[in-house]
Amino acid sequence: MTDNDPHTPADIASLRRAYRTVPLEREHLDPDPVRQFHRWLGEAMAAGSPEANAVGLATADAAGQPSLRMVLLKHFDAAGFVFYTNLQSRKSREIEANPRAALLFYWPEVSRQVRVTGPVGRTTTAETLRYFLSRPRDSQVGAWTSPQSAVIETRSALEQQFARLKEKFAAGDVPLPDFWGGYRVVPEAVEFWQARENRLHDRFVYRRDGDGWSIDRLAP
User: Fold this and answer.
1) What is d(CA 17, CA 10) in angstroms, rounded to the nearest whole number?
2) Which single residue of 60, 64, 106, 114 has CA 20 to 30 Å from 49?
3) Active-site pick, 199, 207, 208, 217
């Protein structure tokens, strides 16, 4: 966009926000990053974040070409951060070719970010089935319907396929597709970012250190 483009909505260079937040100090942090994440996620939800589990997922193909999209975190514990998807999608193909990923959570309601990086592995069939059965029935049918990331001719063709499958699975449970499953990002590094005034933000990174974690403050 140019300065005289009539479609430019605003001077984005002038968009800025003055942050007024409490300091984040080393003594405020839990020794374990997953417990610290649990705390911050709860505070984001309490502050009214509409989808606090929404997370940017970055992957790269075998040639190193990165791609980024939003997914929904569906489980996390000491083993890692889990999301589910079509196993034939672009993200899945990239993970299979280059099994490392980065996650970014952003919660503007509390002026915080969390970054997670590490290797990626598949969830077990039992884990996948347990989550799949917890989804609304139409979402289960939707998993069968969409050839995710593939080129399709029309929206109506997708909707017609959904209707056909909904009728097919009308009786009984919707089965788990063999092309649908979960991935777990195993954290090697987890960074917590708290916005501060004058862009002098507080940043702390946890890194794997044997059976525990080291914690360092980073410059903003």
Assistant:
1) 15
2) 60
3) 199
Contacts of 185 (CB under 8 A, 6+ apart): 80, 81, 82, 101, 103, 116, 117, 118, 119, 120
- Reported as a pLDDT band with limits 50, 70 and 90, residue 40 is very high
Distance from C-alpha of 215 to C-alpha of 19, rounded to nearest angstrom: 24
From the list 179, 59, 65, 78, the residue with the least C-alpha distance to 119 is 59
Backbone torsion region of residue 85, taken as left when φ is above 0, otherwise alpha when ψ lies between -120 and 50, otherwise beta:
beta
**Of the candidates 166, 164, 209, which has an alpha carbon nearest to the alpha carbon of residue 33?**
209
Q: Both tokens of residue 159?
A: 């909707």
Q: What's the predicted TM-score (pTM) here?
A: 0.91
Integer Rg of the chain from CA: 21
Per DSSP, 28 falls in state G
Distance CA(168)–CA(217), nearest Å, equals 56
**Taking CA 6 as the corner, what is the angle to CA 4 and CA 8, rounded to the nearest 5 degrees?**
85
For residue 139, which of 96, 111, 177, 184 has the smallest C-alpha distance?
Answer: 177
- The stretch 163-176 carries a mean pLDDT of 96
> Residue 75: pLDDT above 70?
yes
3-state class (DSSP) for residue 128: helix
Residue 144 CA to residue 177 CA, distance in Å, equals 6
- What values do phi and psi take at 77, rounded to 5? -160, -165
Count of beta carbons in the 10 Å neighbourhood of residue 69: 14
Please say if 69 is a catalytic residue. no
Beta bridge partners of 107: 112
